[in-house]
Specification:
Blueprint: H1 2-12, H2 16-20, H3 22-35, H4 44-56, H5 60-86, H6 91-94, H7 116-128, H8 134-163, H9 165-173, H10 194-200, H11 202-217, H12 220-245
Helix pairs in contact: 3-8, 4-5, 5-7, 5-10, 5-11, 7-8, 11-12
Length: 254
């Protein structure tokens, strides 16, 4: 029984190719979700606003605008969380083609959740779901959760193998994906480098800017232009960072 569970967990881990190309695959998750307008033309927020508006006797257009604004706010939270997490890591670690296992980061958001970058990705897809169809919203969230879990299982296995008891203690103390309200482990004394964090996560702020622009103007062209530029920036910056840091040995977990 235990062997079967272990084999199943191993089979769920992301492959080398998936981990190396995770930035591209994250972008494809969003792309696939948006493409599902071809099978479901109803926007998720519009559908919810129409339903709630009829139930509560509220103007559905006003309700939809409020929901888009809330989605933009959630994306700001996600961008801030990714920036905070990246400020404790070198960009070459965040976007590295392999798991970096030189030392353990236990500062900033890593004291509350082991994978703040992946948690932020889930928030990103929920916020961006406001711009997706009903089907796209559901598929996007499921795909992101599954892919993040596969990446986490791979990283945890490699970090346990390299860090030993130190990492096992960290696993026991800090939640995997849902943040604790209070720090769950002592600080390691690392200082945040916010400028580096913003540089690494600039594309993420573009997602928030795109939805915010749509909430204000209801102009889908502006949203799509900002979204496309943000995804392109993610892919290009990932490629450049990987090229520049190839052969280096920095730090950790996402």
């Amino acid at each position: 029984m235990l062997a079967r569970i272990a084999n199943r967990a191993i089979s769920m881990r992301a492959t080398n190719w998936e981990f190396k190309n995770r930035a591209m695959l994250f972008g494809l998750v969003f792309g696939l979700a948006f493409c599902l307008y071809f099978v479901d033309s109803q926007n998720s927020v519009a559908a919810l606003a129409n339903w709630l508006g009829a139930k509560l006797g509220i103007d559905s257009n006003l309700l939809a605008r409020v929901m888009f604004a809330l989605a933009a706010g959630l994306l700001v939270v996600a961008a801030l969380l990714r920036t905070w997490a990246s400020s404790y890591l070198h960009a070459g670690v965040v976007y590295a083609a392999e798991v970096k296992t030189a030392s353990l980061v236990a500062d900033g958001p890593y004291r509350r959740v082991r994978n703040p970058l992946y948690f932020a990705n889930v928030l990103l897809v929920i916020g961006m779901g406001a711009m997706m169809s009903r089907t796209g919203f559901f598929v996007g969230i499921v795909a992101m959760l599954v892919f993040c879990l596969r990446l986490i299982l791979r990283e945890e296995a490699e970090l346990q193998a390299s860090q030993g008891e130190q990492y096992k203690g960290y696993l026991k103390a800090v939640p995997r994906l849902w943040p604790a309200l209070r720090p769950s482990t002592a600080s390691a004394g690392r200082k945040a480098r916010w400028i580096d964090g913003f540089k690494a996560e600039f594309w993420c702020w573009g997602f928030a800017a795109g939805v915010a622009a749509f909430a204000i103007t209801l102009n889908s062209t502006a949203f799509l232009a900002i979204l496309t530029a943000s995804i392109a920036l993610l892919w290009v910056s990932t490629w450049l960072i990987e090229k520049q840091t190839r052969g280096t040995r920095p730090v950790i977990n996402e």
